[in-house]
Amino acid sequence: MDGSNESVVYEFVLLGLGNSQEIQVLLFLFFSVFFVASMLGNLLIVLTVITDTRLHSPMYILLANLSIIDTCVCSIATPKMISDLFKNRKVISWNGCITQIFFIHTALGTEMVLLIVMAFDRFIAICKPLHYLTIMSLRRCFWLLMVSWIIGIIHSLMQLAFVINLPFCGPNKVDSFYCDLPRFIKLACMDTYRLEFMVTANSGFISMGTFFILMVSYTFILVTVRKHSSGGSSKALSTLSAHITVVIFFFGPCIIVYVWPFPTLPIDKFLAIFYALITPVMNPVIYTFRNKEMKVAMRKLFSNIMGSRKFS
């Protein structure tokens, strides 16, 4: 920290998820398996979309970007969490805390906007199929992706503006495995009631509002699908159910953590694990296992890789 900040705390102690050696071993195996599965699954989706020209459509480009965000989410805190499991003293610097907060909320804000864009894409594809290529052109898709990332960064910078100049003079123990605003703000040496309300309004209410908008949108699309008896309705319903499942997995923990974050609850740590580790694994499973085009493209990718190895 610079000299203008009156804080005397330069690092924070992460209390993690427990001190039992047996539990640490189980957590290490659990986190490692989910981390590797998340990274491989999401990177596989990105590679499949890039290499298969048949998937160069807005729906799959948006899906690939969701996988990129999930890869980022999984990489923010999980590697340090795994490496800290067998350390007696788990510490993170002030700069490290601020960096985690920035990237967490950048990914959080970007994914919220991206899920809205994906809902809009499905709305146009199902309700206005004849105008889909005109409305959701590749150029417009890329612009919407750019807007998603810009909004995510702005949202994160707004969060940092709340805490960047907070004075920290002790205690410095964070009852979690990573730094996030609710527990971080509680350590400040000042009355943080207004800041707590601002965080709740910024992250919590935005999460609730976005979730409500998405649920209303998907309900409207489902009602529209039910009015059609065409053969493509079952495919549309399968795609929508996958989207709705991802939305629930993403927003459920976010709403609980950020709408009622003060005082923090022990369950917050497990919800954070769900958001940071389990949800990034579930997204590839949900989208690939229920999407015929993705499964065909992945088989083709694997066959090409195996074929190239035979000739090498």
The largest pleated sheet is described as: 3 strands, mixed
- Name the beta content range: under 5%
- Write down the Rg: 21 Å
Q: For this entry, what is the oligomeric state of its chains?
A: single chain
- Report the structural category: mainly alpha
Key structural traits:
312 residues; mainly alpha; 3% strand
Short description:
With 312 residues, this protein is mainly alpha-helical. The chain has 10 helices and 3 strands.
How would you explain this protein's 3D organization?
α2 packs parallel to α5 (138-163), α3 runs antiparallel to α5 (138-163) and α5 runs antiparallel to α7. It is globular, with a radius of gyration of 21 Å. With 312 residues, it is mostly helical. The relative contact order is 0.14. It is 74% helix and 3% strand.
Please give the structural blueprint.
Layout: E1 11-14, H1 21-51, H2 58-84, E2 91-93, H3 94-127, H4 132-135, H5 138-163, E3 173-174, H6 181-185, H7 193-226, H8 233-259, H9 267-289, H10 292-311
Helix pairs in contact: 1-2, 1-9, 1-10, 2-3, 2-5, 2-9, 3-5, 3-7, 3-8, 5-7, 7-8, 8-9
